[in-house]
Give the backbone structure.
Amino acid sequence: MSEPVSAPGGEPLLRTENLTKHFKIGSALSRLTLHAVDDVSLAIGGREIVALAGESGSGKSTIARLLAKLHKPTSGEIYFQGRPVSRIRSREDTLRYTGLVPMVFQDPFSSINPVHRISHGVLRGLKLHRGELSGAQRQAEAERVFEIVGLSPAGEVLQRFPHELSGGQRQRVGFAQALALRPKLILADEPVSMLDVSIRIGLLNLMARLRDEEGVSILYITHDIASARYVADRLIVMYAGQIAESGPVEDVLASPRHPYTQLLLSAVPDPRAPLDVTAETGRGEPPKVIDPTPGCRFRWRCPLAIEECHHVTPQLAELAPRHAAACHVAQAHAHTEVKAF
Amino acid sequence: MERGAVRAVDDVSFDLAAGEFIGVVGESGCGKSTLLFAIAQLLAPPAAITGGGVTFRGQSMVGLTDRQLAAIRWKDLSVVMQSAMNALNPVTSIGTQFKDAMRAHGVTSKAEIADRSAEVLRMVGIDPLHLRSYPHQLSGGMRQRSMIAMAMLFTPELVIMDEPTSALDVVAQRSLMVQIKELQERLGFAIIFVTHDMSLVRHFSHRLMVMYAGQVAEFGTTEQVFESPQHPYSIGLMEAFPSIRGPRVPLTGIPGSPPDLARPPAGCRFAPRCPQVMDECAGTAPPLYDVAGVQVRCLLHAPAAAAAAASPARAASTSPAASTSPAAGPGTTSSHDSGGADE
Amino acid sequence: MALPVSGIPTAPDPTGQLPATVPGSAAGGQPGQPARHALARMGRAIRSNRKATVGTILLAIFVFAALFPGLIAKDDPGADAYQPKLGISTAHLLGTTAQGQDMWAQLVWGTRDVMIIAFVVGLAATGIAVLIGVAAAFLGGLWDGSLSLLTDVLLVIPLFPLLIIIAGYAHGGGTLVLILVITVTSWSYTARQLRSQALSLRRRDFLEAARVRGERRLYIIVVEIIPTMTSLIVAAFLTNALYAVLFASSLQFIGLGNPNTQSWGTMLYWAQNEAALQTGQPMWALAPGACIAALGAAFALLNYAFDEIGNPALRPVRRKQVKRG
């Protein structure tokens, strides 16, 4: 499945090609494999926020960990700035890569070591990744990035312990730590899901500012479509380890082509919209993909499933400018919009 | 670390009629979960009810012995927890857990147990053959639904739910909410539904209570609170939800954090974060004012302030109705709840 | 201790909320004075918890006796200078032994031997337990398998008979031998505990964050994991110290220590030898026995107190009459 390159001409910042990750599950003797990510080809350009949305089990977090080099792909390749990531072996090269593609974690309460001061993580990161700086320069740099993310006065906050900071502040620390490494792409794994609603907007605004003022791209992983719409330029919807649909965020939300996207959008509670009780609310849930057979993985829940859906796995194909969906029915009716939900 | 007593819930009073659905909305630290546990008499030390009371069907719940509470629990009042994996026994099948619950309340006939178990599962849309399944064999949505089924075993009059959908995906969440509403309309029980996501209860609750820092910030019919929120916190909360329809607008949320309840501020607890804060807010703790049937804890709606807003001169003294002594003595965790008469 | 924020009330704890951050009035450490602040916090914690207060006082008494025995007991414990089998008197607070030694002096001077064993074994056994337990948990795979196997084998072997056999071979070696023997046989218990604690901490995001940052594994173990386990490590130390006292005294009692060292266990040995209880010299057995019990209790109380201070839900409830209606 390949996604059209969205960056204007030339190699995108990061590109995956048929990225696949399987996990062996069960006892040592079992031969069951969980297909967490199957055949994902996506691209992220410079200075953009790409939202990777999906339910739990869709594979979105696994993709983040593959990109962060926390897992090794089962097959497929990741290209960063044109070069294959799997060739990165030496400690030095790995450090350089993880400095350019750092990760921000989901849980503000377990992502910072409670025993050390806040300065510990960011100073260590600077020491490891920007070794050319002196001690005083590291301190100055730490304060600089803390100011950028809105933690002020930076010198004072750096001296605090994690339990003195709120959840929102801790997530800002996460972004500051990533920013200190002078990254090109930040992998943000559900950075706001565990925060109070009133605090989330502040962090989403911060992400937009980082893109605009610091020129950083962000892969924003989330299960919340509304926040994806608020902050992202492009939206990739994942289902059961595969990409279901992708395109500019407004296009995908205005005319969702894949039935799963339509289901997702209809289920998002919107206080301002009247409740559509006639909509099919779909009893099923995303499957755990263990040793799947070929065919569309959404077919059991899809009211539009045809014969082909049961035998042939759909590939991503462009249905509108830069807007692609992996659905046989949608592709057959590319010029009209098919409504499943 | 000793910080002194924390008044997690302060002066919360409401009446719940039979068959009514009340949503309690708030963020972390607002006291909504503590309130729930207090109502169900599930508070464990060091938490305790220190003032006020809970009345259920005309009977006071506070001070009942464990035996008396056990008789009420599940028959008249049941609780659905946030995470079914934490509440269901992982080593016994669903059917066995239903059986245990029924036996504990004196149902002995095997046929009756089997029938009722199958019936409640069907009510929530699960095939009764899953009575033999263990919790880990079911999906998240099915587990939550079987928790609700278990709460329905004796068709209680009041079901208390603590964020039952937050562990679920959006699609499963939606279908569960529809299911709950359906059951409520069919069986007629009352619901107290605690959540941090007010859009979830928008179409389901009759009345909505917004809590902040242990107190009621706003309380009225769902319609009123959504259509015309009066408290700056409710307004801020509503606007903190980006929409997927309509134009993309920049939002601000509500920067800041809730106050430390071990040292509650003297004045309005929301003042440090309030976009409409006035001079007197930091010094005066506002009581609940009535604004067209909606209770609002905000000085913006104090009668003197309302009158002063009409005239250019601003009253410099604190509002006259500003007595805020809560129900009783020091350290109050009070809540009031009475089911409608049905005898 | 991570505070639950996703609304899951792990214990309906009214303090389960985020601390407000008012710039300048940090609720926790002040920059530049971490050690002093930690001590002050510890002092407050000890004073507020009854178990901690009693345990600390008891332990302090014994530590003082071990450090300055000459201040408390004027006589030479080894000298057979007095009339044997004297009863309690002002000259001899506990009387004299069958060999004419002052029992009070023996008791007080014997404290030193016991305390040395308790602390050295406590530190050594805990050190080994931390190394092996945490490494096994964090390194995983083959390392975990082999280290766990080693731990489990030692755990399964009946400890006391093993102690007897080993001490029997090293008969007459005295305190050092006792320390070695007990350390080697008792680290496995706390190693197992620490391993499971470390395992549950392994999934914490800050460890993954450290990995992603590029830290080396040894660094992560020493700087990121072990400091977060300090309370568990202290608990392990108290456990090991407690068992060291009991094992050492037991071994000395059955004669496997050096009967000429001054220690509570050896007092018991000699008391047994001379049938003290039957011949009207009960203090000879009771006094050291009481001390062993008291020191053991001190360690145990401190262990419980640690748990309670760390987890408010375990604190004792003072049941008040709940107001009706």
About this structure: The CA atoms of residues 10 and 256 of chain A lie 28 Å apart. Chain A is about 30% helix and 20% strand. The first helix of chain A runs from residue 60 to 67.
